[in-house]
Input
Amino acid sequence: MTKSIENKKQTWITIFIFLGLLIALTSPFHYAIVNLYPSRIYVGAIMWCPAIAAFITLKLRGRKISSLNWNWGNWKYIRFSYFIPALYGIITYVLIWIFGFGGLSNKEAITDWGAELGLFGIGTLNPTAITIIAIILLGTVEVIRASATTLGEEIGWRGFFIYELRKVLSFTGVSIFSGIIWAAWHWPLLVYYSNNMLLEFITFFIAIISMSFIMAYYTFKSKSLWPAVLFHAVSNVYIQKIMPPLTMKIEGTEHWLGENGIMFAIVTSVFGIYFWYKGIKEKI
Output
C-alpha cells in the first residue's frame, strides 16, 4: 500500500515536471505569436515543445527516450487514424452546407488551388478536376508534411503524457484531463485569433476533449504514438485546409464554421462519446 502511494506520488511529480517544462518552453513562442507576428516558424516551434519537454522530463527522471512507444503498431489503427478525422471533418461541413451555415463550392478557393498547383491551361482541366487533384494532394502530401509538426506534439501528449496519466487515472480521467491541458495550452492562440472569445473557448475545449477520447483510445489500443501523429495531421488538414476553402461564408453564420465552430464541436462530441463508450466497454 505504501509503495503504491509512493509510486503515484512519483508519477504526479513527473507529470508536473513535464507541464512546468512545457510552459517554460512554449511561453516565448506564444509571446512572439501574440505580440510580434503569427509566423509559421513560431507555430512549428510551439508544436515541438511537448516533445522537448517530454525528452527533458525523461532525462531528469532517469528514463530513456527509447522507452516511448516508437513502434509502428497494427496497420488497422493507422488506417482508422486517417479515416476517422477525415470523416468527422467531412460530416462537419456537409452539415454546415445542409443547414445553410455556409455554401458549397468557393470559386475563389478553387482558383487559388489551381494557380498554386499550376493547373490552369493544362488540357481540358475544369474546376471539378482541379478540386479533385487539390484534395488528393492535400490529403496525402500535405498530411505527410503536417505530420512533421504533429509528431512534436504527439511525442509529448500521446507518447508520454497520457501514459503517465494512465498510471493514476482511469481512461475517462486520462482523456478529460489530457484534453483540458491540451486545449488550455492553446489559449494564447485562441486569444489572438478569436472573434468571439468566450464562445470559441467553449467550442474549442469541447472539440479538443472529444478528440482526446478518440486519440487516447487508438494510442492505448495500438501501443504506438504513430496513430495519434497521423490522426492529428489529418484532422488539421481536413478541418483547416480542405473543407473551409470549399465553403462560402454567409454573413451571420461564422460561429458555425472552422475548428472553433459550433458544428465541429457538436460532431466531434458525438464521436468522442462513442469512443468513450468503447474505451470503457473494452476496459482500456
Notes: The first helix runs from residue 2 to 35. The chain has a mean pLDDT of 91. The chain has one domain: 69-281.
